[in-house]
Amino acid sequence: MSFRHKHLLGIAGLSAEEIVEILDLSESFLEISERPIKKVPTLRGKTIINLFLEPSTRTRTSFEIAGKRLSADTVNISGSTSAAQKGETLLDTARNLQAMAPDILVMRHPASGAPHFLANRIEAAVVNAGDGTHEHPTQGLLDCATIRKHKGRFAGLTVTICGDIAHSRVARSDALAFSKLGATVRLAAPATLMPLGIEALANGSPGSIEVHHRIEPAIEGTDVVMMLRIQKERMGTGLFPNAREYSRYFGLNRKKLELAKPDAIVMHPGPINRGVEMDPDVADGPRSVILEQVTYGVAVRMAVLYLLAGGISEEGKA
Ligand code: CP
Question: What atom of ligand 1 comes closest to residue 129's alpha carbon?
Fold first, then answer.
């Protein structure tokens, strides 16, 4: 086992070998979700707190299911029910949760770097479930797992990520992961939604990152098309004219998808703004693997929880 981290804070801290190890482990956990009784005793006696201070459907639910399928005790705290609403600081919240001796704290937070801040101050292992515009490492891993299932490799593969790159933690984690594994990553966005110098994320990786300001050349001949949501909640005004105009130039429809390879797959981390970044007939079409991404979300998160809990617990051996 090469994975030696106490926390999972970002793809940036993982080697290609560690990413592959998590993907391999996820395949074995995928099988558990296909059994009639979807539960193993692996993490019995471990406590996992899911602290979500931003909305989530997929990530929060799949972390809870992942913990429960491994027999850990899982506790969920959301922004609306936490004492953060009464003015408690993040550090005070975390110290109070630590006083209840959890083994793993999974957290989503609107501020980039919030999980790193807590990882230096509490005993529990911290998993970043999305921090501001920074990273969403388990999304990056589940996207790798989905692509590997369909394409079998990353070296020589072209993956196009199109949309609001500037505000997307998914784009960052994906671009880091795909380039570490050897893929060519094409990022496509209007200039106002593309961070300057983002190509440097691939420095030191076998893969590379290209920047495009039109979707058509970014899709041409690609193996994978990943569309992203416009994150209105993270942007001020004026970054693009309106949803209709954006959809016309950067939305994915069947005609634009014809530019990709005939066996190209279509992905989206969710939630989808149907008719804005993607037409419904593409989202639900034969090339879409969007719901497979969600299925892999549980398996990948089981693998991450297993690794951070130190493998099988003493209780789990019983
Ligand atoms: N992909 C993703 O993070 O979805 P949620 O916001 O629903 O968790």
Answer: 3
